[in-house]
Every structure is written in structure tokens, then in C-alpha cells.
Design goal:
Blueprint lengths: L2 H19 L7 H8 L3 H12 L3 H19 L5 H7 L5 H12 L3 H6 L3 H18 L9 E6 L2 E9 L5 H14 L9 E5 L12 E7 L12 E5 L2 E9 L6 H15 L9 E6 L10 E7 L2
Antiparallel strand pairs: 1-6, 2-4, 2-5, 3-4, 3-7, 6-8, 7-8
Helix pairs in contact: 1-2, 4-5, 5-6
């Protein structure tokens, strides 16, 4: 990548970071073009050419994405408060925009989200961001830790990854009922397959929560298990933790062969340290673990 292209990507990354950190503010074109250090006229055209969306449309989507997470995962917030947080003056206007984009009212989405149109709405944007703004990792970002074994309760997701959000929602409902809060009980994902297997039906991931208490399934598909202890290469990812594939590829493809280490017979996994919507997407944090012999 040329120095000029690197500089361009860095400028656009600054803009995206600024938007993420100031979603509740008045994000006008003058302020954002100043962040990018481009003229307002050229910045608007360059942003649209890069992301396939106008700046205004991008901000709308970012706010709507945050609102949808709050609807699905934050029972304590009212629809009115969520609408205001998305930049709408009235719940009716928010409801119309939400239904137009996702085919459900906000209250219906809160009760039973249809994730397929949700993924269709945000997928192209997320893919564009991850391809253009991929973080570059170095050996300095990886540390080797001696990790203790952790007893966990497991909800398995087996099948099409487009239905993963529905499994996540069931998992959250179960762990709340079980009193296993993320602040007191660590949350893990263990990947049993590639992120994009040849057949979507082969996608496999375990959603886990650490607990040393007897597990009460309460009708949910929950089983007991363990994340084994031992040496692990650990890489921390901040922001865009929905897609940990670039970080996993770095560990497997670049770091491991150069390190002289050998992988242990347990899948790569992550611990979710902070979550959307409790924090903004730019603050979401996960530690990625590659078990070593």
C-alpha cells in the first residue's frame, strides 16, 4: 500500500472514529471534513465514493444500528428514549423509519427480532469498513499468558451464521434469568468452524459464560463444559469486535509461524470484555486466545 493511500485510509478512519464517539452530537459536514483535513466539497464526494453512502446516510445508519442493539438487548430503555438517542424528535418518526428499513416496528423488533433484514441493511457497510479499514497487528500486540481453566455454561449455535443473533438473544435471556451478569461472570465465544464455511449450515460456535454454580437450564439448550487452562497467545481487539476474523488470521497466519510456537488441540476463542450497547462500537473490547502447547 502506498504512503498516499495509507494517509487517505488514516483520514477516513479518523472520521469514522469521530462519528462513533459523537453519535449524540450534531455531526455536520463542516466538522467532519475538518477531521479528515479535506475541503467540504471534496470530502463529501470522497466519503461517498469510498463507502457507497453519503455522510448523512452513514450517520443515520450508525445511529439506527445502535438503536436496534438497544431495542434487542437493553430492556431498561424505553422506545421513546431510544428514538431520541437515534436523533428523532418523536417516536412515530423513528417507528416509520425503523419499519421502512427492517420491516418491523421497534416494539415488534424488541419482542422478536427478524435479523435477516437487519443483516442485509448493515452488512454491506460493515464489510466495506472491515476491508478498507483493517487494523494492522504486530508481534508487540500479542502476549503469551498462562490461562486458568474456566468452568462454563454453554449454549451451542449450529447452522447458518445469519441466525446467530437470535441465538445470542436467547443466551442473554437465559443468563439474565440465571443471574450470571457479564460484570461478575466472564463471557466467551469458542469457534468450532470457520467464520464462513463452505456450507452455511456447517457454521458452529459456542456461547459460554463462566460459572462454578450448578447449571439450571430452565428450558434452554444449556450444557456444562470447560475452557481448558494453559498457555495462550492473546491479542486484544478494540472496536468492530463483530468481526474478529482479521485478528484470528493474524494469529494463525503471521504470528504463529514466526513465533516458533505450536498450537494446542483446542479452538481459538475470545473473551468479551465490553459489549454493545453498554459501550459504543468503537469501545467494544475482546481478547482473542490462541491455545499453545
Amino acid at each position: 500500500m502506498t504512503a498516499a493511500l495509507q494517509d487517505y485510509h488514516a483520514r477516513m478512519q479518523r472520521v469514522l472514529d469521530h462519528i462513533d464517539r459523537h453519535l449524540d452530537d450534531d455531526l455536520d459536514l463542516d466538522a467532519l471534513s475538518s477531521v479528515a483535513a479535506y475541503s467540504k466539497f471534496h470530502f463529501h464526494r470522497q466519503f461517498t465514493a469510498t463507502f457507497g453512502l453519503s455522510v448523512h446516510r452513514y450517520i443515520q445508519l450508525a445511529r439506527m444500528k445502535r438503536a436496534s442493539y438497544r431495542l434487542a438487548y437493553s430492556d431498561a430503555e424505553s422506545v421513546t428514549d431510544i428514538a431520541m438517542g437515534a436523533g428523532y424528535d418523536a417516536p412515530d418518526a423513528f417507528a416509520r423509519a425503523f419499519r421502512q428499513r427492517f420491516g418491523q416496528s421497534p416494539s415488534s423488533f424488541r419482542k422478536s427480532p427478524d435479523w435477516e433484514p437487519w443483516l442485509a441493511a448493515f452488512g454491506p457497510l460493515d464489510n466495506a469498513r472491515s476491508k478498507l479499514m483493517q487494523k494492522t497487528y504486530t508481534t508487540a500486540d500479542v502476549e503469551i499468558r498462562e490461562v486458568p481453566a474456566t468452568t462454563v455454561a454453554i449454549m451451542e449455535h449450529r447452522g447458518d451464521p445469519t441466525t446467530l443473533h437470535a441465538t445470542i438473544q436467547r443466551f442473554i435471556i437465559w443468563r439474565k434469568a440465571a443471574g450470571l451478569h457479564p460484570r461478575t461472570n466472564p463471557t466467551f465465544n469458542v469457534w468450532r468452524s470457520e467464520r464462513r464455511p463452505a456450507s452455511p449450515g456447517d457454521y458452529s460456535v459456542d456461547l459460554c459464560v463462566g460459572t462454578d454454580q450448578p447449571i439450571e437450564a430452565n428450558g434452554a439448550a444449556i450444557k456444562a463444559g470447560e475452557i481448558p487452562g494453559g498457555r495462550c497467545a492473546v491479542l486484544r481487539v478494540v472496536g468492530n469486535t463483530d468481526n474478529l476474523e482479521p485478528a484470528a488470521l493474524y494469529l494463525y497466519r503471521d504470528w504463529l509461524p514466526a513465533s516458533g510456537e505450536e498450537a494446542r488441540d483446542f479452538p481459538i476463542y475470545c473473551q468479551r470484555l465490553s459489549f454493545v450497547p453498554d459501550v459504543g462500537e468503537h469501545e467494544a473490547t475482546a481478547d482473542l486466545f490462541l491455545p499453545l502447547k
